[in-house]
Amino acid sequence: xxQYLEVARAGSWLGWVFNFGFGSVLFGVLPFERSVMILFAxxxxxxxxxxxNQYFDRExxxxxxxxxxxxxxxxxxxxxxxxxxxxxxxxxxLILVFMANADVLPLFIVYIGLWTAYSTPPFRLKSVPVxxxxxxxxxxxxxxxxxGGGLSDKLISxxxxxxxxxxxxxxxxxxxxxxxxxxxxxxxxxxxxHTFVVRYGRKxxxxxxxxxxxxxxxxxxxxxxxxxxxxxxxxxxxxxxPLSIPIIMRYVNVLKNPSTKxxxxxxxxxRNYGIIGVTxxxxxxxxxxxxxx
Length: 293
What we know:
single chain; mainly alpha; Farnesyl Diphosphate Synthase
């Protein structure tokens, strides 16, 4: 049973759950019980995505020093059971969504379909340069945020705000995908997975990811300058700034030497400080929403 929990790789998609919760807090949620059901359904859908991806990536993962110990790559779970487990997760997810709020069912279908196309032949979008990180940005940043906002029965009226909030999320997840692809460079190149990084090189990949992170970080100031975000909310950005310093330092190391070790250190640092940052951001959004600030 522990192997099936491990293959779901929940630690890798906590940020996706945050995006979902962030959207639901900003734009209104269902009654608590139904909201919990939808959140659990989203978790099941996301777990199915990661399980399916490991099925199709098992050969490449065996060549990856970090991922070779994953349950599917190491042979602790057979490919057949992996597919069955992924399918059961999808079915359970759709049943829960239908029971809790059938209105968001189309968004869940699009979400699952997009990520299926990302991993599965003949589409295999993860092996299409540029499309690989674009799909990751949309699938991990925009869609979860939109799905969370979709719990509101007035989603259409929130579309402009959703787009403004989604842009930095898309950039962060696209950049994060590129950084991960830099770490997977050797295994992907050896097994013929033609990611953006494999096509254009690790150095360019790190630079492009850095530009995405920079634009995402500056976006609140740009929104304020354009009158789209009240200046008072920039205080939160200044509070979060110290948390980004250790991540920036790790990024500089990756820029100097994009080795697997430096990539792993950056990802760990981003995860540790990111959890604190997104918790503060989520709490602030909840405070603003409930207090009407």
